[in-house]
Amino acid sequence: MANDIIIQTEQLTKRFGDFIAVDHISFDVHKGEIFGFLGANGAGKTTAMRMLCGLSLPTSGKATIAGFDIYKKTEAIKRSIGYMSQKFSLYEDLTVKENIRFYAGIYGMSNKYIKDKTALLLQQLHLEDEADKLVGSLPLGWKQKLAFSVAIFHEPQIVFLDEPTGGVDPVTRREFWNLIYEASAKGITVFVTTHYMDEAEYCNRVSIMVDGRIDALDTPVALKENFSAASMDEVFLQLARKATRNDS
């Protein structure tokens, strides 16, 4: 399995003054894997993801993303990945079609390719009738699915999703995860942060961050077995209680 590792970190750390936001984390992610990066708000998930995306340099440690060194090849990393931020990442004062074409153009795609793939994408998302509407007028669930589709429009090796289902209803969350499964089936590695513990069940493997550290990493089934838990919520609660006892 070593030859299909697409994300590799070793003792990756991020400090802000005396505060350690990400505390010596080490893990690997395999090509095509859906890797869940779980933890409560403030656990360090977004800070870690920003380092992996080449948006923030680590304080120490090592990492390679799609074969590129996190210190030396940040621009190459950005070209090889897709990214959907925690806050809605498209322009609300542009139309659906304009947003797609704008982001596709950033990656240097030909006009013909953009035109053909835009038509296909609108059909897949059932947004043909909304193509010329401002994104700001769409329901949140449609916006989120569009943002994800734009993030993988250029067929990146990895897509990073930061709390992608925050604020949407359960039905829309499930529909969003169907899009994730489709991307993974095409060989795109999906790295997703979430504080919804039930979403861990949808991942191939999950890591759980507590206070900047990775306190557990395995498949959802194995984690529940190891912690004698009926759900991922119970696993997380046990880890949180353990961290509280250690800090006291």
From TrEMBL:
Record domain ABC transporter: where: 7-236
Molecular function terms, GO-annotated: ATP binding; ATP hydrolysis activity
Signal peptide region: none
Any Pfam family matching the protein: ABC_tran
Presence of the UniProt keyword RNA-binding in the record: no
Domain of life (superkingdom): Bacteria
PROSITE patterns: ABC_TRANSPORTER_2 (PS50893)
Nucleotide-binding as UniProt keyword: yes
CDD domains from the UniProt entry: ABC_DR_subfamily_A (cd03230)
Ranges in coiled-coil conformation: none
Keywords of the record: ATP-binding, Nucleotide-binding
InterPro entries associated with the record: AAA+_ATPase, ABC_transporter-like_ATP-bd, P-loop_NTPase
Protein name: ABC-2 type transport system ATP-binding protein
Species of provenance: Parafilimonas terrae
